[in-house]
Known about the structure:
mainly alpha, Ferritin, 12 helices, 65% helix, disordered C terminus
Amino acid sequence: xxxxxxxxxxxxxxxxxxxxxxxxxxxxxxxxxxxxxxxxxxxxxxxxxxxxxxxxxxxxxxxxxxxxxxxxxxxxxxxxxxxxxxxxxxxxxxxxxxxxxxxxxxxxxxxxxxxxxxxxxxxxxxxxxxxxxxxxxxxxxxxxxxxxxxxxxxxxxxxxxxxxxxxxxxxxxxxxxxxxxxxxxxxxxxxxxxxxxxxxxxxxxxxxxxxxxxxxxxxxxxxxxxxxxxxxxxxxxxxxx
Length: 241
């Protein structure tokens, strides 16, 4: 497998890929750092701190690879976008935030485990091993909150906030560069397929919490054309509340 592409087109697309990966990893690390205050037990704080530390160590690998590709540090490149990300205002919101951010990260990384860029593929495989594959948030605070019908409007609002942020981190499904990345072997799945996989796998969560994925216009994001049909179907694992 190739280490670093030599042609300018591939290097340019690879830079964009690494910038999005760095953005997602730093966003998740910053959220964990902020959210640690919501846990009262030291053991819970330690687990959160350990996950944050691991994420930052893997981020350093992305930072190193980006420097090889561009001769720049990726942190200043993504800092502006990072500053626009809100922080969860409660442990309940942190639960849904981490759930969605981790799940979108898993779906994004899965497209790079067979990348033609060996270092990127290695980062993706290592990062995937560190992320849990959960159908529901690890912290039950959000699901418990949704069990009360009067809480669901607020839960839906918070879900939509973090769903929008998660989807935006993947980029536009119609982007020409995203499609070209597959043609060049930099990744194995186009953005529309990654977005569709992410959304359809939320079925159990949506059913357990009695939530819905709203229209793209409501979220303020671009969704794949294929989602129009899927969005009209009831989520898998729907639970009556």
